[in-house]
Amino acid sequence: MAELAMQFRPALQRYFLRRRLTREDAEDAVQEVFARLSRRAGLASIDNIEGYLFETAGSVTIDHQRRGRVRAHDRHDAYDDERHGFADFASDRLLQGRQELQIVLAALRELPERSRNVFILARLEQMRHAEIARRLGISVSTVEKHVVRALAHLTLRLGEARR
Which of 25, 102, 111, 163 could anchor a disulfide with 116, C-beta 3.0 to 4.6 Å? Predict the structure, then answer.
């Protein structure tokens, strides 16, 4: 196994890099190929070990892509304490945040039902405008107008509360 790893590791790494895996993911994928190979009984009976390795690499690539789609890994930012950390948990800041949340919720209740529903689907459920339009039987332009109307109303109410 070590001999195969020494011989094929660089080629497998290039294979995964060409399939747009990061260097770290490519290294993990190479490890996964050899892990799968080590679980297989009867390595000596394989006529074309190189072909088998790259066929396994293809399966590993497909599995990696599926996991990536499910986890949406590429849409997440790495945690950065300076950017994501909370420096201030003071009670006055917490109280202010709760009050602003109450203002936003009250402002949402003031909106017409259609605008409120469109806004919630777009901003909280993170649905695409085209999907919302299809679901509600309205045009994409109408969805956009409802979102803009809701944002303007929420901004107005928050501005009034901060004065």
Answer: 111
